[in-house]
Amino acid sequence: MAEPAFRVSLLTKHFGGVQALTDVSLEVAPGEFRAIIGPNGAGKSTFFNTITGLHQPDRGEVFFEGRRITGAAPYTLARNGIGRTFQITSIFRDLSVLENLQVALLAHARRSWSAWAPARSAMVSDARPLLELVGLKGTDARVAGTLSHGDQKRLELAIALAGKPRLLLLDEPTAGMAAQERLESIRLVHRIARELGLTVIFTEHDMAVVFAVASVISVLHQGKVLAEGAPQDVRAMPLVQQVYLGESVGDSADASTEGRSP
Amino acid sequence: MNRSAAIGLALLLASALPFLVSHFWVFILVEVLAFALYAVSFNVLLGYGGMLSFGHAAFFGIGGYTVAILTKKAALGMPLAFVCAPIVSALAAVVIGYFSVRRAGIYFAMLTFAFQMLLYTLALKATELTGGDDGITGLKAATAIAHPVAYYFFALIVVSAALYALHRLVESPFGYTLRALRGNPRRVEYIGVDVRSHQFAAFIITGAFAGLAGALFAVSSGNVFPSWLNWTASATPIVMAVLGGIHTFIGPVVGAAVYVMLEVVISGQTEYWPLILGTIIVILVLLLPEGIMGLWRRKAKAHG
Fold this sequence. Notes:
- Chain A has 262 residues and is an alpha/beta fold.
- Chain A has nine helices and ten strands.
- Chain A is globular.
- The C terminus of chain A is likely disordered.
- Chain B has 14 helices and no strands.
- Chain B is globular and about 50 Å long.
């Protein structure tokens, strides 16, 4: 395999006595659409927060395109080509849709320190195609907080894309959506990632969503990587089925593990 | 009415006013100007950056004391002393901000508050330098602008230029970034912005402008007192900003004008003026949650 786009080596994190991650290692190839799944409490959130600079790992390293980024500040990650979205949609609610993207694009252009030139019409020509890409054409002037939940998710995606990332990290990208909307939403991300040649890592509850788009799946269980492989292989693994309480993983559209104990 | 017409009209009115009223009121108008700048500088932090400083008076006070000490004790000329005021305030903001912007919300407010009380104590105790309880009195403006009307125009020019610069700032990429991090600092981090540095810069810049306002007012009133650094002094820009409306640039200017005028009028009538002023402010804030300018905006919207 060529240089992995993203590599985690022996990542370990505990909170007090709770071992949240134990020696988690994985490699993600360029252009991959990697799903991180696992029952509640498996360590998905901790994993995500640790690779995005919110938590410092106790041990282990994180590499992006061969460069060590362990524990780097979030703004450093963003500047180096890593974009992310949040489980709870994170946009600038009291700014207009256009301003949301202007702020992100200005930041990417390292112009956030410019304190004299007017920003009103800055970056508009870069913002418009992004809005069109995520399906928010014509919503420029709307106050972002008044958009529907689904549109807010789209806007958040556009904000993340404004930084021209090469790696996109999506934490539960379909959280809070209706079943049909989830598939539409993840397919949009999938299509855009393909078009732009992005590597994507996402955590997800909904197996239908995972199996619709993932190229490789990593299963976390009790803070460890339990299994990893192509979707059909992972689905067939007895160990994985056991973790999911004997259910045939991915059989039904709503095989969500939400609310189930590991 | 478009914006430039409104600004032109306001400047015209502001230029005519001192010829229409007594010197006492010219003095009050200077106070309005100084506090307008003070309140706007405060509101760039609160209304745009979402940072509630409870120690903004530190910089207003330092501005005032800098002019007073440099002219009275160091025998520096007034123009130079005046230039030094915002610089010294900015330096103080570097020190205070360095520690304060590490925390958000109420902890930020408390840290700024603590630093200001430290300065208050210093102003009271460092008698040699600050005159202690008695403050420093007998400040005079440079001869060229010694006349009240001349000083008024000096203040008008300084405040107009300062407000222009601050307006450029809030409409700039830096200002947009401040507005974004007001509601969602974490998201701002993840678009590649070092949030704390931007907050730190905003703190220093607004501190400098507050210092300029303090210097203007000190020379106008001819004295500085330690009470300028007391905690109640930090409530003043908060009340002015909220009264005028924190979600518009011009709101705090309106708030400052209303506040100062009310104070002058009511204190001329009764010694219980703080009681009356407080009551009026409570009523205004309850009736106009978005401030006076909020009402203006609603009206403007309703009429298309």
